[in-house]
């Protein structure tokens, strides 16, 4: 049970003044985490941290204020001058003065009653905003803040600036966050006192208050102790939660999975190629783990196209040899189908029976699959999380493979499988993850790496091209289509914001259709499952030659004879994503290329990213560069600008805290494995605050 102390933070944000259902939906868009469908809570607002601050501390007086400067002025109101009746184009002016000069406060489309209340004649007020001069006369158009001198404290001299989205005003968001911060109760401390002193950490509530009500601009920086404290908290919550999941997983009895090699060897013989050295090595590690009586928990890391699926299949074959069933879970339906397509023909030749189970299988077909899983007449099932969510029963599930692609946050999935039959677990990730991130996302997990590309792969030539040369590119693509090549054309998602109006996939489709006609296909996230499959099939079979796609669904899809990848607005993508997308080509034996279309002018970070892409194909190098560049520039969308899987912590600023958090977590749990001591109880609060509820539930006394 969650302690009642935290209730104020777990009530819906609509309980905050000024936040209705509509505002709540807008606020959800700026949250640094994916709510996964649950309602937004007051506590979620705490971790919406400022991007920057507006410094309003300068109070030079009217005469000394520089044009364009943000200043705060202490004024006496002289008189109001409403616009002449019926002429709304003339602004409402309020004249005021200080010791140094006069000023006109200027309002367009003003409400007289409101201004009379805010700026009563003869009163002392404080206003803050941008200083301007019209014909040499001081003025301020729509001051950002107005307060009576007696209430001047309410005016933020250092104002935090939060991420915004269309329709959400800074004021409304700031007010909501302010209320959320006020609702934070005084909590027992979960950090070690000496550690806090060493790092100049304040308490949790004080750190939050400092970040949201900075007194000077440095207070709101990620390098400030306040932010670092919260980052540490988040790391610690993550590490404790991972350790609990892991302990639970280990506690559940494993069983040795051994086999005589008959199916594994049949499979090996059925492969149209031989495994690379690193595939062999990874397979050997996995088979050795399986043979141990302990439960396996291993990460298989390998770049896109490095051949993880085959390794997983061989390992699943061993599980079947040992008399059990195996499951492969993919993050999306389309990827589940892709995996099945890779696996099924090979599996069939080794006498393995396969099936698929996603949200889309319905009716009789589904019923049949379910009963065959239950009676053991399916050896290997491929599916989405539907596999583990529903009342799917296996006759004897002994091995589960989770394909995470480039997602992070295995917590939930590990927890899900911890409930079941305690199958051995293999987690596959497609992006080579820097060591620090492996630690944050997976804790101390055993890792196998695929470092070689399968033999016969050709390097991918990568070029950058400004948008102005689009027509030239289209001409070259037309030639390539005439030669029988296949081309992916990626368009970024359209952000529903005026500022980032990007060419959407549909618009690009319309623009290219006159050129490519029937040979042009499109696939995007808003299409239905069956439509997506059909679009992919048509491209795979060569009925369409150019496939326009958004980034949501195509990652991981395998069309080995696709040779050109065009990425539009490449400057908007993060490095990991660019790398991931580029990996869709260069999978066959023909030379491939990748065209990064960009729009000038390029920022420094974008420039650097594109040149990294030109310089290297090594996923590990790219991952490290990505980490360095992250945060320096905006990635696509607000949610991706931080470190994936984290709300507060930013690896580029806080990685030094990570190992400390891991050691701390180990120490805490070694002394108090069920979190029952005083500090343990406080740690439970921490877990709730950072959404690690599922870890708390794993505690026996949870
Ligand atoms: P990943 O899942 O790591 O992105 P896949 O397992 O989907 O990669 O493999 C990508 C492609 O490479 C598949 O078409 C697969 O058949 C092929 N492949 C895998 N291993 C080898 C190998 N050792 N030699 C040649 N091709 C391979
Ligand atoms: Mg794969």
Automatic annotation (TrEMBL):
InterPro entries cross-referenced by the UniProt entry: ATP-dep_DNA_helicase_RecG, DEAD/DEAH_box_helicase_dom, Helicase_ATP-bd, Helicase_C-like, NA-bd_OB-fold, P-loop_NTPase, RecG/Mfd, RecG_dom3_C
NCBIfam families tied to this protein: PRK10917.1-2 (NF008164), PRK10917.1-3 (NF008165), PRK10917.2-2 (NF008168), recG (TIGR00643)
Boundaries of every Helicase ATP-binding domain copy: 289-450
A Pfam family hit: Helicase_C
Recorded GO MF terms: helicase activity
Annotated keywords: ATP-binding, DNA damage, DNA recombination, DNA repair, DNA-binding, Helicase, Hydrolase, Isomerase, Nucleotide-binding
Catalytic activity: ATP + H2O = ADP + phosphate + H(+); Couples ATP hydrolysis with the unwinding of duplex DNA by translocating in the 3'-5' direction
Name of the featured protein: ATP-dependent DNA helicase RecG
Helicase C-terminal domain ranges (all copies): 469-628
Family listed: Belongs to the helicase family. RecG subfamily.
EC number from the UniProt entry: 5.6.2.4
Keyword check for Transmembrane: no
Cross-referenced SUPFAM superfamilies: Nucleic acid-binding proteins, P-loop containing nucleoside triphosphate hydrolases
Function summary: Plays a critical role in recombination and DNA repair. Helps process Holliday junction intermediates to mature products by catalyzing branch migration. Has replication fork regression activity, unwinds stalled or blocked replication forks to make a HJ that can be resolved. Has a DNA unwinding activity characteristic of a DNA helicase with 3'-5' polarity.
